[in-house]
Specification:
With 101 residues, the protein is of the alpha/beta class. It is built from three helices and four strands, in the order E-E-H-E-H-E-H. The protein has one domain. The chain has a four-stranded mixed beta sheet with strand order 1-2-3-4.
C-alpha cells in the first residue's frame, strides 16, 4: 500500500503486510521497494525518500530475524532510495494508529 503526502504526490510510506515468518521475503520486498522508488525518482514522480513499514500479523513471526536481515541491507548500502525501514506487529501498528487519531 502506498501512502502519499498531502499537497504533493510524493509517496510518504510504503506499507507491506507480511504473512511469512519474517524470513527472506522482507529482503526481497525491501529491495523491490527501493528499485521502484529509484525509477519513480528518475522519472520525476518522486522527490523524497519514503519510509517502508513491514506489518506482521502472525504473532509467531520472528521480527528480530527480519530486523537483522534488513540491517545488513542498510549497512551494505544496498538500500539507497528509502528513508527508514520499520518492522511492527499488527497489534503495535493498531495501537500506534489509535494513539495518533
Amino acid at each position: 500500500m502506498l501512502v502519499r503526502r498531502r499537497g504533493n504526490e510524493d509517496v510518504a510510506w510504503i506499507v507491506e503486510v507480511e504473512a511469512s515468518q519474517a524470513g527472506k521475503s522482507v529482503v526481497g520486498a525491501a529491495v523491490l521497494a527501493d528499485v521502484c522508488m529509484q525509477i519513480e525518482k528518475q522519472q520525476g514522480r518522486q522527490k523524497g525518500k519514503p519510509d517502508l513499514l513491514f506489518v506482521f500479523y502472525r504473532p509467531s513471526a520472528k521480527l528480530q530475524l527480519a530486523r537483522k536481515r534488513l540491517e545488513r541491507l542498510t549497512e551494505n548500502r544496498v538500500i539507497e532510495h528509502l528513508n527508514e525501514i520499520k518492522i511492527m506487529s499488527e497489534k503495535r501498528v493498531l495501537d500506534e494508529v489509535a494513539h495518533a487519531t
